[in-house]
Amino acid sequence: MTKDFFNRVYEVVQRIPLGKVATYRLVADILDTRDARRVGHALHANPDGSRTPCHRVVFSDGRLAPGYAFGGPNEQHRRLELEGISFSSDDKVDLSLHLWHPD
DNA sequence: CAAGTGACAATAA
DNA sequence: TTTATTGCCACTT
Q1: In the annotation, is A54 catalytic?
Q2: Start and end of every Methylated-DNA-[protein]-cysteine S-methyltransferase DNA binding domain (predicted)?
Q3: What's the predicted TM-score (pTM) here?
Q4: Which nucleotide is nearest to A35 (CA to C1')?
Q5: A52-87 pLDDT, tens digit each
Q6: How many Å does it take to go from CA A50 to C1' B12?
Q7: Fewest Cβ atoms nearer than 10 Å: which of A13, A19, A47, A77?
Q8: Is the CB of A92 under 7 A from strand B?
Q9: Cβ-proximal residues to A97 (8 Å cutoff; 6+ apart), any chain
Q10: pLDDT per residue over A18-34, tens digit each?
């Protein structure tokens, strides 16, 4: 069931340690797929932001999602900073330092 | 049922 | 380095 996949996405996202971020591709890879888009859909389909830290999931380049649902990239940016994540010049997460290294 | 759209990303040129 | 193409698949019209 597709909903199952969604649930798995949330599970993985919740596994991301504080101060780390994951890319859509990375999550997809953990779920045995290459479809980052589905991951994006899963996160967007989840209206409950307090339950799933969607802000810890970014583009492969470390950029933030363009149409973030809680107040734009600005909100996500602020949240990530709060988690102790550093940003580069173009509002870009420093993946070299903060990319989650899964078990 | 078909076509279009989308919180994506790798590869090619 | 930037833009174009292609793959992927759920969701909407």
Answers
A1: yes
A2: 4-85
A3: 0.92
A4: C8
A5: 899 999 999 999 887 766 767 788 889 999 999 999
A6: 41
A7: A47
A8: no
A9: A86
A10: 999 999 999 999 999 99
